[in-house]
Design a protein that fits this description.
56% of the residues lie in helices and 0% in strands. By secondary structure, it is mostly helical. Helix 1 (3-25) runs antiparallel to helix 2 (29-56).
Length: 91
């Protein structure tokens, strides 16, 4: 497992731990605000990842984590006849 993937998976939990420590040990408004923001960020990241993985998995055995690979297909481009005409533009 690459370092980037390890950080990606563990970062919300690290944010949560640091945020909790800041809330419990902090003695200033800045510490409490930082702790609250870190806990909010951690919760949001975990919720969004969980939601994306639930929606993105195609089967129970899918281990892709809901991430889809680019198949190389280009997005559909309209032909000239399908585009709305612009009176100020000559074709």
């Amino acid at each position: 497992m690459k370092l980037e993937q390890i950080w990606y998976e563990s970062s919300p939990f690290i944010y949560g731990l640091i945020g909790l420590a800041a809330l419990l040990k902090g003695d200033s408004l800045l510490a409490y605000a930082s702790g609250a923001l870190l806990l909010t960020a951690a919760g949001t990241i975990i919720r969004l990842r969980w939601s994306a993985r639930i929606k993105g998995s195609s089967s129970p055995g899918d281990r892709g984590g809901g991430r889809q690979r680019n198949s190389g297909a280009q997005p559909h481009q309209q032909s000239a006849k399908d585009r709305p005409s612009d009176p100020g533009h000559r074709h």
